[in-house]
Design a protein that fits this description.
Strand content: under 5%
Shape: rod-shaped
Low-confidence stretches: none
Mean pLDDT: 77
Distance between the termini: 65 Å
Helix content: 55-70%
Number of strands: 0
Structural class: mainly alpha
Length: about 70
């Protein structure tokens, strides 16, 4: 049983479109997501360790958004 060239062409184009839609659907959330002021907890055994590690955690994108 031979497949016709129209069937093969239709199948190729159809699968390419489905693959493009799936790639777009999975990539858009990654492009549009980011750090949105997520609080981060810091646990240390004593105050000296906390003083060495504690810094304001502002994302670079947040800084640029504040200046616009």
């Amino acid at each position: 049983m031979k497949s016709t060239w129209k069937f093969i062409l239709t199948l190729t184009v159809g699968l390419t479109v489905v693959l493009a839609i799936m790639m777009t659907a999975f990539s858009l959330p990654a492009v549009n997501s980011g750090i949105n002021n997520v609080p981060i907890g810091l646990l240390t055994p004593n105050q000296e360790s906390y003083a060495k590690l504690a810094k304001p955690m502002i994302h670079a994108c947040s800084k640029s958004l504040l200046h616009n």
